[in-house]
Structure formats: structure tokens, C-alpha cells
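User:
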Amino acid sequence: MDPMAFSLSIILSKALESEREAVLAALREGMVWINLKLSNTIIV
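Assistant: Predicted structure:
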């Protein structure tokens, strides 16, 4: 396994109406992850 590889799973609390909504939800989750990483809340 590549030590630089990572996996991100997103669990949503509801079904989304469109592919656009799904992409936006994933982008929001990604931004939260980046903010946590930058604030050293999580260490990867």
C-alpha cells in the first residue's frame, strides 16, 4: 500500500436530488477535511 494514498468515505444523512447536489456535498466534506488538516486537528 502506498503510504501517501488515502481514502475518503462520505456518509450522507439523506438522499440527494441530483448529481450536482452530490458533487457539492462531497466538495463541502472535502473542505471540512482540508480545514481540519490545516489546523492540525488531524494528522495524516
